[in-house]
């Protein structure tokens, strides 16, 4: 659907309450999990459930958003014993043993290396998670082939340029990486290449092995006192800078986003791009491959460099225009290059760049130390397992980060938010929903209340009952936009003490629609308006239109508006009882005594249409609606 199109719930009752078939498509709530402090941030905050039991925040939030089945579920097999359905994790490139062991304890691990794209696409619909390194191209085609089952892609390393993040987001698939464990390995490889290039180690080694003794040919250049420009002063770049300082080099760095104090602490000068390339004797590349950095090093930029500059690349091949580099090497503008990464990997056998006598190469070995590979494997295994369990890794690259403390305090409101969304959409009759306004009453200053999670849950509640989309924190905003649904938020200051609760109430308003339950319209009559609160840890519906109610949001609810008079509760209860529909609670809210009242009836079973019709025919009942929560 185009972004400008209108979001149209079906007018039919049954369609409004139906949920898409997601049996092969269980979603998860990505929650934040700090590396190395796995669940320590969770599980400590007990919440009272409506049945009086207690649960952890983690449990509550996961249940609040899990759609059909948890990813690890139990079911009875033919002989009646319980069997566990473990998630399937496809590992498509070599991963360290420690990580594999962790994965095997949690799921079924399929290590299938060197898959063709077609093989990957055919396997992926059987997999809940995919773990890759830089060699697997996780394209849109892969997400399409997954048919909604793939919930997380784990990149066992830093660069995620081989994963189509846009497609992942559209399909609600979380992408996590392992950004820290190979930093030192990559930096050490950069320094190894720098030294090897400066002293012609690779060429001299080949020459000796070929039976030659060419001491005059392989005279090198010294590093001490030379200027090295570190392009991209992130994790690897700053470690390279630190090591280059140790070699007695003058270190300058260019990075539009790096804080100057980090550079200062290492003794590097942050300079402009032009200054860096114009003054450096060595240029070491450490930026990610993005549309902005693609072929950043080209004929023009090589032309601005100091003649005879030496280039090291352990970042991504695509940041260099490789044909331009060959020209620069041929002309002597660039004296030497040391490359670990290539635009195409492996590069073509006849690559002029690889074969160039002034170029030394390694086959993308930057991260390949035993230590780094074990570290990366553990880092990614933990992130993927966490994601499959409903947590969001702190290394998620396509989902907003919600800090653990924010998560803890918002946990009960997550349930409330989704249910309010579900109720609001079921109150709409016929025409399309274009805009939803959410009003949070909060004792906090607006910037102190992070509502992204709540907004995502309201969106989920609104969209899921009436479409095939499934929503999670990863794709909520994207799907809403795609469906032409505008969600605006307002935070109103409430005078309850700030420490008591982060959110006093949440109101969901849907404007410019007709309601199938007129009493849900606000006093002005222009919008459907419902409000909820969390009371003692339990999500409650507290207001419908202009009626105050106090309804626990569980099971299914029949809402009736009637003329307030004795006997109605009994009559409706009898009708339900006769049809074996169990009532879990009843609550009546009225405006003025003996005038209009709203009765909310919690029911365990879904009453059939005839039962609802009979309730509607009870004298004094003016309108009713059945809501599935
Ligand atoms: N060869 C290997 O095996 C290997 C191993 C690890 C990392 N890498 C690659 O090294 C690169 C850096 O990794 P990292 O872990 O340091 O990532 P990082 O995110 O910590 O650092 C990247 C830095 O590049 C900066 N940057 C972005 N655009 C820039 C631009 N136009 N000009 C200058 N700087 C820019 C960012 O601000 C950031 O500080 C990535 O491309 C990664 O994929 C390669
Ligand atoms: O981005 C990275 O982490 C490195 O390029 C390592 O890639 P690899 O996992 O394929 O060795």
From TrEMBL:
Keyword Amino-acid biosynthesis: yes
Biological process (GO), any one: L-serine biosynthetic process
EC number: 1.1.1.95
Domain of life assignment: Eukaryota
Reactions performed catalytically: (2R)-3-phosphoglycerate + NAD(+) = 3-phosphooxypyruvate + NADH + H(+)
ACT domain boundaries: 557-629
SMART domains, A to Z: AdoHcyase_NAD
Protein localization: Plastid, Chloroplast
Keyword Iron in record: no
Family: Belongs to the D-isomer specific 2-hydroxyacid dehydrogenase family.
NCBIfam families referenced in this protein's UniProt entry, alphabetically: PGDH
Protein name per UniProt: D-3-phosphoglycerate dehydrogenase
